[in-house]
Amino acid sequence: MKKVVMTLAFALALTGVHAQTENNSSFNKWSIDLGAGVNKPQRPFSNGYATNTLSPWTGDLGVRYMLNNKFGLKADFGYNSFTAKGSSIDFDSKYYRVDLQAVANLGRIMNFETWTNTFGLLGHAGFGYAQLRADNIKKTDEIGNFIAGVTGQIRLSNRIALTGDFSTILNATQDHTFDGAYVPGNRGFSGLIFNGTVGLNVYLGKNAKHADWVVTENNGYTDISALENKVSDLEAQIKKIPATKEVVVEKQTNNAQLTDNDLIRKMINDKYYSVYFDFNKTTPIENSTAAIDVVLTYLRKNPSATLDLVGYADQVGKADYNDKLSYARATNVKTIFEKAGIASSRLNVIANGADTTIQKDSDEARRLARRVTFIVK
Fold first, then answer.
1. What pLDDT sits at residue 23?
2. Structural domains in the chain?
3. What is the mean pLDDT of residues 179-185?
4. SS (H, E, C) the chain
5. Position 186 pLDDT exceeds 50
6. CA-CA distance, 347 to 307, in Å (whole number)?
7. The dihedral of CA 148, 149, 153, 157: what is its sign?
8. With 90 as the cut, is the pLDDT of residue 129 above it?
9. Using one digit for the tens of pLDDT, what is the confidence trace for 290-327?
10. Strands 92-105 and 160-172
11. Are 30 and 207 in contact, with CB atoms under 8 Å apart?
12. Which of 49-53, 154-158, 243-247, 273-277 shows the lowest mean pLDDT across its residues?
């Protein structure tokens, strides 16, 4: 019997690992990024020419594809208008650019989800082609550029996020100043523009969330040391139990069964059978059915036993919300037992809120925190 129990416990432990390490690939990857704002061209300018410190107008339209929840690519078109300020000699120039940029979801890389689900941060950088046009430029100035910036995000819904972007553009082989004067032999990254825009991320796709806001695995690696320790502890406990000899007397057989029954109860109370949940969800994940079956079988075989269902959340979010979330999780598991024929009077729901004993800044630890455990009485 010991070997059977050990095999069952180890299988459930591995099931828990699998359940907690599944990558959530069901998220949207495409978005349209819109922005409008102001600019400040720094150089080059001819003497007597300048723009306002914040000069209108700047526009940006981009299409972004996220390879995963941390990295992606963006193709965007930008427009800048450069005009004279009050004391400057009058001029009016237009700047157009097309860029291909790499995007890093800094919010996920830096684990923003440990303290907010509303604010995000993207970093972007890339190269492109630009044109500078003005009335006094006989031939359009064709320019290479490098652009880099950061974009702050405020999630308004699963489809829209408000953004604020600050970008720096370096121009190479710019043959004219921003006011249109020709500069012979002006090679290298001589042009410099600062852009600031406010806009929207519009998320496309059939799934509920976009990659910007989805928390998945940390490069496919999961720390299973906690589960390994549980299995080791269980093995040590089982070794302490005297071996049950095969008997033919019915009474002795029944006594052996009682020993096994007590062992299952101890395993339940020691949290070897737990029900796990995805982030911000109250429905158990599919892999938790094995643990529910074990506890349900125990309750059916022991009709006098009662059960506490203890709900937990991870430490992401506010305390009052986590209290409600942990209560909803335990209540939903209680409903499963009731539908399976267990009387409601035998089931007691306890909401423990966020589990502060589990590491807050680890994706793997937070997955183990989102659970319902059991106490047999």
1. 41
2. 2-23+222-376 (3.30.1330.60), 30-213 (2.40.160.20)
3. 87
4. CHHHHHHHHHHHHHHHHHHHHCCCCCCECEEEEEEEEEEEEEECCCCCCCCCCCEEEEEEEEEEEECCCCEEEEEEEEEEEEECCCCCCCCEEEEEEEEEEEEEEHHHHCCHHHCCCCEEEEEEEEEEEEEEEECCCCCCEEEEEEEEEEEEEEECCCCEEEEEEEEEEEEECCCECCCCCECCCCCCEEEEEEEEEEEEEEEECCCCCEHHHCCCCECCECCCHHHHHHHHHHHHHHHHCCCCCCCCCHHHHHHHHHHHHHHHHHHHHCCCCCEEECCCCCCECHHHHHHHHHHHHHHHHCCCCCEEEEEEECCCCCHHHHHHHHHHHHHHHHHHHHHCCCCHHHEEEEEEEECCCCCCCCHHHHHHHCEEEEEEC
5. yes
6. 5
7. negative
8. yes
9. 899 999 999 999 999 999 999 999 988 899 999 999 99
10. unpaired
11. no
12. 243-247
211 and 158 Cβ atoms separated by less than 8 Å: no
Alpha carbon 373 to chain centroid, angstroms: 25
pLDDT at 343 exceeding the cut of 90: yes
Tell me what pLDDT residue 249 has.
37
| Amino acid in position 169 | I
Half-sphere exposure of 318 (CA within 13 A, CB side): 4
CB atoms under 10 Å from CB of 277, counted, come to 27
Would you say the pTM of this structure is higher than 0.85? no
Q: Which residues of 91-123 are buried (b: 16+ CB within 10 A; e: fewer)?
A: bebebebebebebbbbbbeebbbbeeeeebbbb
Q: List, for residues 73-117, the tens digit of each pLDDT value.
A: 999 999 999 999 988 999 999 999 999 999 999 999 998 988 888
Report the C-alpha gap between 340 and 337 in whole angstroms. 5
In this structure, what token pair is assigned to residue 48? Answer: 């007597």
**Tokens 């008997």 belong to which residue?**
247
